[in-house]
Specification:
globular; two-stranded antiparallel sheet; Aspartate Aminotransferase, domain 1; Aspartate Aminotransferase, domain 2; alpha/beta
C-alpha cells in the first residue's frame, strides 16, 4: 500500500497513462489472487466492496429486487451479526416480505414461500461453526439461493466456494490481516448476470444517455466509482501472506490454541462458557459477579485486547 501511494496513486480502468495502467494491473491482479484463494470459478465472480456489511447490503438489495414478492420469506439463523440481519429487515420491509428464523445448528424446515437463505459460516458471538454445506444442499434441492457471511471463517479455515456450492460468499480484508474498508463479494455468475446494480456511478456503465444507461460487464457493474485501490492492494498482500503460511497450518494452530484456552477456562469455577463445544477461534465467557466491561478493562491492563 505504501509503495502504491508513493509510486503510482492513480485511478484504475480510466487512464491511458502509465501510472493508471500500473494501478489497474495491480488492482486486477488482486482479483485473480482472491479467486484462487477461495477457489472461485471465474475472476468475474469476485467483486470488491468496502467490507462485509456493504457486500451483504448489495446482495440483499439486488437479490431482493430480483426474487421477492409480497408474502415471500427470507430465512435467517437466530445467530446472525447485525450486518446479516438489518439489510434483510430493510429489504423485507421494501418488498412486503417476511423474515423467519431457525436456530442455526440444525437444518431448517423449508417451505415454498422461502426465496432466500442467509447464514453465517461461523458466528461472531460464540464462534459456532454452522452446517452451511448441509444447509446449502437442502436449499438447492428447492432452488433457494444461499448467502454465506464468511467474515469469521475466511481468516481461519481453508475455503473452497466451488466445493461448498454457495451462491454468495462475503468477507472483509481486516479480518485476515488486511486493511479496513475493503471486502469481497463472491457470487455465482448465473446470479450476478441477472442482478441489477444498487449503486450507480462511474466505471459501472457501458453506455449512458440522458434517459438510459446500460451496465458494464461483470464484475465492474457492481463496482461504481473510484474504489479503495490501495486497500484492495493491501487485501492482496494479506491473502498472499496467509497463503504462504498455509490455511491448513492456520486452522491447526487455531484449534490448538482454542483447545488450550477452553481447557484452562474450564478449570475456573467462576467462568461460564457460552456456545457449542464445536467452536472456531472465538470463545465467549462471563466472570461471575463481574461486569463484562470491568473484565475487559482488567484484561486491557494486562495487555490483552
Amino acid at each position: 500500500m505504501d509503495q502504491f501511494y508513493r509510486t503510482t496513486n492513480a485511478n484504475v480502468h480510466r487512464g491511458l497513462y502509465r501510472w493508471s495502467e500500473a494501478a489497474t494491473a495491480q488492482y486486477e491482479q488482486v482479483r485473480d489472487t482472491v479467486q484462487q484463494f477461495i477457489h472461485a470459478g471465474a475472476r468475474e465472480e469476485i467483486i470488491f466492496t468496502s467490507g462485509t456489511t456493504a457486500a451483504l447490503n448489495t446482495v440483499a438489495q439486488s437479490l431482493g429486487q430480483l426474487l421477492l414478492q409480497p408474502g415471500d420469506v427470507i430465512l435467517l439463523s437466530q445467530l446472525e451479526h447485525h450486518s446479516n440481519l438489518v439489510p434483510w429487515q430493510l429489504v423485507a420491509k421494501r418488498y412486503q416480505a417476511n423474515l423467519e428464523f431457525f436456530d442455526g445448528y440444525t437444518l431448517p424446515v423449508l417451505h415454498d414461500r422461502i426465496k432466500i437463505i442467509a447464514v453465517a459460516h461461523i458466528t461472531n458471538s460464540a464462534g459456532a461453526i454452522l452446517p452451511v454445506a448441509e444447509i446449502i444442499q437442502v436449499a438447492h434441492a428447492q432452488n433457494i439461493p444461499v448467502v454465506v457471511d464468511a467474515a469469521q471463517s475466511v481468516p481461519h479455515l481453508p475455503v473452497d466456494v466451488h466445493a461448498l456450492d454457495c451462491d454468495f460468499f462475503v468477507f472483509s480484508a481486516h479480518k485476515l490481516c488486511g486493511p479496513t474498508g475493503v471486502g469481497v463479494l463472491y457470487g455465482k455468475r448465473a446470479w450476478l448476470d441477472r442482478m441489477e446494480p444498487v449503486i450507480g456511478g462511474g466505471d459501472m456503465i457501458s453506455s449512458v444517455t440522458l434517459q438510459h444507461s446500460t451496465w458494464a460487464d461483470l464484475p465492474h457493474k457492481f463496482e461504481a466509482g473510484t474504489p479503495n485501490i490501495a486497500g484492495v492492494i493491501g487485501l492482496g498482500a494479506a491473502v498472499e501472506y496467509l497463503t504462504r503460511i498455509g490455511m491448513d497450518v492456520i486452522q491447526q494452530t487455531t484449534a490448538e490454541v482454542h483447545q488450550y484456552l477452553v481447557g484452562e477456562l474450564k478449570k475456573l469455577d467462576f467462568i461460564t462458557l457460552f456456545g457449542p463445544e464445536q467452536r472456531s477461534s472465538i470463545v465467549s465467557f462471563t466472570v461471575a459477579g463481574v461486569h463484562a466491561h470491568d473484565v475487559a478493562a482488567v484484561l486491557d491492563q494486562q495487555g490483552v485486547a
